[in-house]
Amino acid sequence: MEIKSVKLSVIKMPLKAPFTTHLGTVVERESIIVEVNGMDGHQGYGEGVAFSSPWYTEETVQTSYHMLKDFLIPYLKENPIAHPAEVTEKFRVFRRNQMAKAALETALWDLYARQENRSLSNVLGGTVDKIPSGVVVATKSLQETIQQIETYLATGYRRVKVKISPKNDIQLVSELRKRFPDLELMADANSAYTLKDIDRLKALDEYGLLMIEQPLAYDDIIEHSVIQNQIKTPICLDESIVTFEDVYKAIELKSCQVINIKIGRVGGLKTAIKIHDYCKEKGIPVWCGGMIEFGISRAHNIALASLPGFTIPGDISGSDRYWEEDVIEPEIIVENGMIAVPTLNGIGFKINKKRMQEVTVFEEYFPFN
Ligand code: OSB
Ligand code: MG
User: Fold this and answer.
1) pTM of the complete model beyond 0.70
2) Is the pLDDT of residue 33 over 90?
3) Is 332:339 a contact under the CB 8 Å cutoff?
4) Is residue 248 domain-shared with residue 293, that is, in the same domain?
5) What is the rounded average pLDDT for all residues in the chain?
6) How far is the CA of 140 from the centre of ligand 2 (A)?
7) CA–CA separation, 349 vs 311, rounded Å?
8) 110 by DSSP, 3-state: which?
9) Are residues 230 and 254 in the same domain?
């Protein structure tokens, strides 16, 4: 792949409404958009999904920018690749920094697919032409949560996820069950519990949740197996899965029955697919997680979620879930609870140049000659 230059753009946009977990509230999203320019005139796009502060993982927008500018882009310049599947192995010389790596790796996949005149879904091995869409409701009050769920159900979303902690869990889940007895409902704890809370987690077994996501520490695998052994509701791991080896350990130890795959958290599409393939072989269902992202990352998620092991609706909602106006066109839309997998080349969306300009706070070019 002959590369002419890479461009990094830091963009910033307010969310339509605050997104609240027990760890804090997100009101504004800052991201790095990576544009890779091929010698042949094609472009590929990727999106860094680290947040402005390290509340979800240790990376931030600033650490990602530093990694991209000072290590990953110079390394790619000095070590040309023939195919995007080579990038992950090459980047192993730099430890971790998964989201920074994924931002550049995903842009190279998009560029490659466009150069091949194929959709990214086709290049990755996608097998479906539409994917089911789930939505996350993360508000401060029960009242707001109920209102939002009603709105999203009316627009067709198939599955709802709420955020729980020992402060709201039983009350929230039992109220929602009364209101929405048949709803495909799941709960994400973002590490709000410890082993001492086992009784609270056992009590949640009564409400027919699809799964409980990441109840224990963000870096735990062993104690999740202790909990999973004592509750019926499947545990899904999110934060604990940062590498393929983490998946191997979690499955061997029976720490979970489901895995949430986020391209950024695992360092790119290559590892995401490796995890998907392994989970499929082991009979572990996977779904695609979300990062309150813009359209570029959303488009990569759609392509990934078109692979056959993604049997559970992911946190892939429409552009209008979070944004007044997204940075891609057309925007991502949910129809009857489904999102169409694009058939156009690459990620299948164009950059909305006008919107990009409005939200860009900083940009920088890195020529390869
Ligand atoms: O834990 O899945 C999570 C958003 C930001 C950080 C972590 C998580 C989330 C979500 C997905 O819950 C939200 C979305 O993108 O719709
Ligand atoms: Mg989660």
Assistant:
1) yes
2) yes
3) yes
4) yes
5) 97
6) 17
7) 24
8) helix
9) yes
| DSSP one-letter code for 310 | B
Are 44 and 183 found together in one domain?
A: no
Which pLDDT tens digit goes with each residue over 299-309? 999 999 999 99
Instruction: Classify strands 159-163 and 185-188 as parallel, antiparallel or unpaired.
Output: parallel
- For the four alpha carbons of 20, 22, 26 and 32, in that order, the dihedral sign comes to negative
Would you mind telling me the total number of residues written for the chain in this entry? Answer: 369
> Do 146 and 292 belong to one domain?
yes
Helix, coil or strand: residue 366:
strand
User: Which of 111, 135, 100, 123 shows the shortest CA–CA distance to 265?
Assistant: 100
Q: Closest residue (by CA) to atom 11 of ligand 1?
A: 290
Coil vs helix vs strand at 268: coil
Q: Which residues are catalytic?
A: 163, 262
Half-sphere CA count of 83, side-chain side, radius 13 A: 7
DSSP for 212-243, written as a single string = EE--S-TT-SHHHHHHHTT-SSPEEESTT--S
Q: What is the pLDDT of residue 158?
A: 83
- The number of the ligand 1 atom at minimal distance from the alpha carbon of 239 is 1
119 in helix, strand or coil? strand
Domain boundaries, position 30: 3-117+350-367
Whether residues 141 and 261 share a domain: the answer is: yes
